[in-house]
Amino acid sequence: MRVAIAEDSVLLREGVAQLLTDADIEVTARCGTADELLIHVAEDPPDAVVVDIRLPPTHTDEGMRAALTIRQQYPDVGVLVLSQYVEVGLAMQLLADSAEGVGYLLKDRVGEVKEFIAALRRVADGGSALDPTIVSTMLKRHRTSDPLDSLTPREREVLELMATGASNAGIADAMVITQRAAEKYVSTIFSKLGIPATGSESRRVLAVLLFLRS
Amino acid sequence: MAAVLPLMPERHRAAPKPALLWALGVAAVLACAVTAALASVNEELYQPALRVLLVWWITLPYIFAGIVAWRRRPDSFFGPLMILAGFVTQLSILQWTSQPLLNTVGQLCDLLVAAVWLHLFLAYPSGRLAGRAERVVVIIGYFAAVGLQIMILILGGFNDLHVLTVAKRQTAAEAIQNVQLLSLSALALVGVALLWWRWRSLPQWQRRRPAQILINCFSLTLVMLAALLTAGTFQLPGFEIIRLATFTAAGLAPLAFLAGLLDARLAKAGVGELFVQLRTDPAPDLRELLAQALRDPTLSLIYWLPQYGSWADQDGNSRSLPASDSGRRVTFVKQNGEKIAALIYDAALGEEPELVEAVSAAAGIALENGRLEAELRARLQELQGSRSRVVEAQQNERRRLERNLHDGAQQRLVALALELGLLAERVNDDPATHDRLKRARSEVAESLDELRDIARGLHPAVVSGHGLAVALESLAAATPLEVHLKTAGLPRLPEQLEVAAYYVVSESLTNAAKHAQANTVTVEVSVTDTLIVEIVDDGIGGADSERGTGLRGLADRIEALNGRLRVWSSVGRGTRVRAEIPCA
């Protein structure tokens, strides 16, 4: 797998590059600005990019805009956005059209090496990776006559995993159950919440997010 | 308060003593009684009752108008002249008696009345004869009326009742009398011409209606007088009718004069209107209003500049006070004993000192109001400015701190977490070390969580980075309530506005969730030339913007941006918070 990195902190950039190299991932570019990344992607599209949301010169939304541009112009390139803070508003912006090949994680997650690499691979393969804090934040919302109240604790757990972009196998692993059992949970949740069952895992991420936001 | 000081105090005369005026009034009434008594004992008098009434008609109005004029305009000789005219008429009536000395006085004053009228009319309005022509006409008039009269009496003219007869020369006396009557008649007509010539040479704005009526009365009296004297000379028929008409006309002039004074009082009442106009907003052109109130379009208003020791007009051009013989007069507007401005107006307005005084008092108040208002505005602006600067400086400082945290401690801790993660991967074969490294990494993650909260509290970076709509979406998501966001089509706005609006929503949502026991909240943000943020919840209400420091702090922040924050929160009816911030 080939990955380009855009991160203005040298320490972190080199750290992530090291992490990827250790996991046998080829780092095709180490960029300090969004413009550098866009030029690199245009010249030599990688399988995925890891991009910091705040990049020079203004350190406001340069990384975010580069991510959106790449998603629009290079649909085959997975985009994993890293940030010191995760915002539901930004997640909705990133996932505006689809959850395919996109990820949005807290920067801290790079320390959870295995999970981080797995998320990156999922994004490169067209899947999704949303930070669990996004889903847990949205689940805290209270609704009058909330269909979420009808979920069992186990089902809520599955819902959270599903919303982060985990596959059925991933859910099964995380909950130490069989993949078959995981599939059953998923279909039960969909029918309880009234969400039409959709095939791909990234599509159901979006469906769950939209449901939680409504 | 404003004080008024005339430029030429030497022109101010003391007002006559009230006792004197009262005495004159009583004398006039007594004189009228004497007239009636004389008429009743004189058996030769033709139509005695009518004659008495006519005499009253041309005496009392002159004397009473003269008293009023003298009291109100002590500077002018016009009042005393009117009083004189009235009493001269009374004296001329003494010719009705047969007592020799009194009869002589009456005979002497017979035509003096005509000369005094001529003098009086030509001396309007100041009581002084303005030009050489007027003086010549009046002097000749007095000579003809008194000088020739004495000659006639010495030559034994009229009758034998007087004491002046030296030699009886009837023919000569009659010849002189004819010359006397005709010359007085001619002088009266010249007087009319002078009146009209002077009236025509006045500027248009000074030809006021009351003055015009008065000049018309003077002219009519003089023309009738000329006709009467001519009729007397040639002993024309209808003499009695002409006399009746002449005396009737003569009595009109003082009444017209009183009407003019009333008009001046009305002009003074117009000062009240001036005060009303001065209070309108935006501030009107003060000079224009004062000119209207004084009915003098040539009025100028100049200001004293103490730091330069000179006068200047409204635009700052240097100006000087007019010379005393320039036909202009000056009234100073004073403040705490110091002159602050001056009104320069046509000298003709000197005839209406009360009006000028009232108008300059109004000017003083208006100038003081203007000065206070300017001072207040300047202070408010200063205050508003310093308040905005405080809020802005605070916001800049908070943003700088958040940025430092983000680029410093947070990045380093993330790098540390990464390093610990990498190390843990490398010691997979040593579970104990692996677990300790993972625990260390979790500690770092906790610290990062705490730092994130601190950073977010310092400055909502998501607002400056991604705009209000995105930030509110996150706020709504993090609020444990049903939040309806209406932010469609919201453009990016200046950072200060977005951050202020963010805090309004954030604080309101926190209150709704924590205190209001609300289920649903609606957040609506719209922009025209004003950013309007409105948060409505269905909770228990009763929030108080003065008590809670949260809402008060918000109000300060909004007001520093020239906006305002309002809270409606009656108990049991939910809470509505509305912030309006101008975008300019």
How would you describe this structure to a colleague?
The complex is a heterodimer of chains A (214) and B (584). Chain A is of the alpha/beta class. Chain A has helices spanning 10-22, 34-43, 62-73, 88-94, 113-124, 132-139, 153-163, 168-175, 179-193, 201-213, and strands at 2-6, 26-31, 48-52, 78-83, 102-106, 128-130. In chain A, strand 1, helix 1 (10-22) and strand 2 (26-31) form a beta-alpha-beta unit. The radius of gyration of chain A is 17 Å and the shape is globular. Chain B contains 16 helices and eleven strands. Chain B is of the alpha+beta class. In chain B, helix 1 runs parallel beside helix 3 (78-92). Chain B has four domains: 17-267, Rhopdopsin 7-helix transmembrane proteins; 268-384, 2-Layer Sandwich (Beta-Lactamase), CATH 3.30.450; 394-458; 466-582, Heat Shock Protein 90, CATH 3.30.565. In chain B, a hairpin with a 2-residue loop joins strand 5 and strand 6. In chain B, strands 1-5-6-2-3-4 form a six-stranded antiparallel beta sheet, with helices on one face. In chain B, strands 7-8-9-11-10 form a five-stranded mixed beta sheet. The two termini of chain B are 40 Å apart. The chains are: A alpha/beta (214), B alpha+beta (584). Chain A binds chain B through residues 9, 11-12, 15-16, 18-19, 22, 53-54, 59-61, 64, 84-85, 87-90, 92-93, 107-108, 110-114, 116, 137-138, 140-144, 213, and chain B through 403, 406-407, 410-412, 414-415, 417-422, 424-425, 441, 444-445, 448, 452, 455-456, 461-462, 464-466, 469-474, 476-483, 519-520.
